[in-house]
Write a structure and sequence with these properties.
The protein is of the alpha+beta class and 178 residues long. It has a domain of 102 residues: Zincin-like (2-Layer Sandwich), CATH 3.30.2010. Helix content is 47%, strand content 18%. Strand 4 and strand 5 form a beta hairpin. Helix 5 packs across helix 6 and helix 5 crosses helix 7. The longest helix is centred in the C-terminal third of the chain and has 17 residues. The radius of gyration is 17 Å and the shape is elongated. The protein starts with 10 loop residues before the first strand and ends with a helix.
């Protein structure tokens, strides 16, 4: 799960903009983001860098997309039983995506099911951000915690993962400004 809120708030005082999504980043990076916002260039940066949209709008198309990525990078991983867009994720869970693992005893066997839910926000987001969130949630199927192994797996599936994660935070700030 990529958490959004509950972070130490960073507020751009002169414009009253919440930059808590950037907590943990160095002050010089936050300062550069504040400058982009103040100069009205944040949207231009995002549009020039991430201009490619995707056509994944249904749960079925999303399931196929996730399976393709999983097949390329996690062949031996446990199967995914359900993938869907969810309108309630941001509101209820303060997250962008969720992974769930359900185990049930059926007779003498232990059956498990993996599910991934992605915020509906990504239906209209640039394709790179959808890819990043899918990589993030797939990585949780193998590594539950956000640790070095988790981020190593994310970078294996997408070498630009860290930059995409940062730019996704900028994208969310940009949406919040509108």
């Amino acid at each position: 799960m990529i958490a959004l809120y509950g972070l130490c708030p960073i507020v751009c005082q002169d414009m009253n903009i919440d930059l808590s999504l950037l907590s943990g980043y160095p002050e010089n990076v936050i300062s550069q983001v504040k400058t982009l916002i103040q100069q009205g260039r944040l949207d231009n940066y995002l549009q020039s860098t991430y201009c490619e949209s995707h056509n994944i709008r249904t749960d079925k198309a999303l399931f196929t997309y996730v399976q393709d990525i999983k097949r390329n990078y996690m062949k031996k991983g446990s199967p995914i039983h359900k993938v869907s867009f969810d309108d309630r994720i941001d509101v209820l869970y303060n997250a962008l995506g969720l992974h769930s693992f359900v185990s049930r005893v059926q007779g003498k066997r232990l059956k498990s099911k993996n599910e991934i839910r992605i915020s509906s926000l990504f239906k209209k987001a640039p394709s790179e951000f959808l890819h990043m969130i899918v990589v993030h949630e797939l990585s949780h199927l193998k590594v539950k915690e956000h640790n070095k192994d988790f981020y190593r797996l994310c970078h294996h599936m997408d070498p630009h993962y860290s930059q995409l994660e940062f730019d996704l935070r900028l994208y969310l700030i940009s949406l919040d400004l509108k």
